[in-house]
Amino acid sequence: MSVTLTDQDKLTLRNAAYGAVSLMAAAAGADSPHKVATQGSIALHSATGLVGHVLSEKSSVGDLGGKSTAELADRVLPALTEAMELLKKQAPEEADNFRGTVLVAVETAAQARKGGTSPTLTEMIRKITGALDAA
After folding, report:
1. What is the rounded end-to-end Cα distance, in angstroms, of the chain?
2. pTM of the model
3. 19 C-beta neighbours (distance < 10 Å), count
4. Rounded Cα gap, residues 126 and 12, in angstroms
5. Residue 118: what pLDDT?
6. Alpha carbon distances (Å) from 111 to 4, 59, 60, 73
């Protein structure tokens, strides 16, 4: 079965996935946020299937900025749920792939921090997982 996603659908998936990595970098605070973001992004590029094709496209993501981690979370956590709902409706075989890809990326990001995962990063992973599972 061939699935065709609109440009907006693809943007939703990219915003959600890269937003999750951005949340991890924000949660890392002053302790290696660039390393956390880099490792998480590299993990996203290892995705396969339709999700892998969408995440590796040379397209920009939406606005992932904000004045605080809370502002970023207000955008990203609902986007994760929306991405899962979109995939469950349009490409159900890819929903688990997307969920797994995002979770591998955030776990990889957390491990990139010197000293391993902190309680702050562990809590952010819990919130990201909850948003993925809310769909």
Report:
1. 23
2. 0.91
3. 26
4. 21
5. 84
6. 35, 27, 26, 21
